[in-house]
Amino acid sequence: MKEFETFKNRTSKHVPDVPFQMLTSLELDQKDWKRIARNAPWQMTRMNLNTFVRHGAFEGGQGAELTNIIANRLRDPLAIAKAKVFPYQLMVAYMQTAGVPESIRESLQDAMEVAVGNVPQIKGRVIVCPDVSG
Fold this sequence. Notes:
Layout: H1 2-8, H2 20-23, H3 30-39, H4 42-47, H5 49-54, H6 63-74, H7 77-83, H8 87-95, H9 102-115
């Protein structure tokens, strides 16, 4: 917590390893957002792609490098298995990422294919009843 307090008071430029939500209330610059995106765990990365775009994490110096890091993280089969993410979650993320670099969007498609392995198999007869009321 000492690292967080020094960062919060701007006496340190090192983004501390704390839950992401603790940082969002602070005034962060583009470099801070790049560091957050670089160090984000898999699920946080998937859920905050638009936030990273909104704060310019993929722009300017090291933007292309960060784009590659994020794309490789999202398509990593071991990380996908560990996150236990389902293809539908990735499809929704893909559909919501209009301003995200194309290589990251493509990595979400790759991840969808891998995530099919996370869908549990159910023995016996299964009936699917979609709700179309809404």
